[in-house]
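User: Run a structure prediction on this.
Assistant: Running it now.
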Amino acid sequence: MAKQSTIKAAVFDAYGTVFDVHSVIELAERFFPGQGKGLSQMWRSKQLEYMFLRSLMGRYVPHDENTEAALVYCCRQLGIACDAERRQQLMAAYLHLRPFPDAIAALDALSGYRRAILSVGTRPMLEEMTTYAGVRQKFDELLSVDDVAVYKPHPDTYRLVTDRLDVSRSEVAFVTSNYFDVAGAKAFGFNVFWINRSNAVPDELGLLPDVTLDRLTGLADAIRRFALPPPA
């Protein structure tokens, strides 16, 4: 694999990459037996749909509002009676998503790089989630699209990384499990590492990741093989 440039920062998507968005299934199943998995899957899908629609319409709302709106829709669509108390508990569960089992070791292995999150979540959501999971100290920066009031994959969201971390695009290893994020980050000029846990087929957008892995295990080695190490 050809050397690209010095990588100075490892920047992670949060939802679906470091944190398992389907951590909410357990609570959802307790509330709605037999429908927890279906609710979680639809909730995630509707969140993404709302993100893209709001960005295209120029009608951004913070992701906590976006997430709750998606939850309300899904409960209505599934015919689930989700009262205010249960809705509040499910929203709280979304603030306490579990890290994937391979995430903490992967972050530790990248301690020689600047580590950051770039997420659609608001800063309070990211602070709560990373602190609850015990990984806040593993990130130098938590970057939220809320600061630019548009969702990924808009280029302004990725520009937060270069502006806030003071790095060039070629000095960033961007790590995500979401293909729309792969495409956006690659179009912006990042070195993109796709964590393809489900063995998905890339979309036909003419934008491919630089490296594809099936889990975060081995990410640090992949970054080091891909590019020169950070300066001492």
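The chain has two domains: 9-19+98-226, 21-94.
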